[in-house]
Amino acid sequence: MSVEAFEKLITPKPGRTLIVGSRVYGDKEDRRKRYPDAVGVDMQAGEGVDIVADMEDERVKFELRKFDHIECMSMLEHCRRPWEVAENIEALLKQRGTLFVTVPFIWRVHGYPDDYWRMTISGVKSLFQSIQWKYEAYSGRGLTDEDGITSARSTDDWPCFARTEVCMFGHKV
């Protein structure tokens, strides 16, 4: 299943939406445009960013209002302490609010500003303990069963496997 196919399964709760890691890089989509009342937060200023903040900082729980839906896509691998980010995201999410998370399971090393983690479904569940997950999958971008090591190389010239992400969607209980 591709990430795009996974997204067709989910139904974000309408209302105020937070896009965590919202800075637009290259051809990345500005996901704020998908929602009528969206706020983008990132630790670096730039296109797609409404609020510059470090989501590891507990002050964000008190400085931002609650949200009906939060998206955190391909961002947790860049956090030194993703458990603190998860705690802050849960604190910002309203009861019964929805959460959509993607994080690399397999992918090349990449910056923004650094790259620390790869996660499994169990790893994401352990980070977000107040979320009841409805959908969870290992999703690839156009992968087939024959895909394995690719000829693509990371910036460090390490071999890499076809990109596979953990995709999860649920609501706060």
Brief account:
The chain has 173 residues and is of the alpha/beta class. It has four helices and nine strands. A seven-stranded mixed beta sheet has the order 3-2-1-4-5-9-6. The protein has a two-stranded antiparallel ribbon with strand order 7-8.
Secondary-structure element series: HEEEHEHEHEEEE
User: Quick one: biggest sheet?
Assistant: 7 strands, mixed
Strands ordered across the widest β-sheet: 3-2-1-4-5-9-6
* Alpha-beta classification: alpha/beta
CATH class: Alpha Beta
Give the count of helical stretches.
4
| Computed CA radius of gyration, to the nearest angstrom | 16 Å
Through-space gap between termini? 27 Å
Task: Compute the number of structural domains.
Answer: 1
CATH superfamily, called what?
Answer: Vaccinia Virus protein VP39
Low-confidence stretches: 143-154
Number of strands: 9
- The geometry reads as globular
From the 3D structure, determine the CATH topology. Answer: Rossmann fold
Q: Report mean pLDDT, rounded to a whole number.
A: 89
The CATH architecture category equals 3-Layer(aba) Sandwich
Q: What fraction of residues sit in β-strands?
A: 25-35%
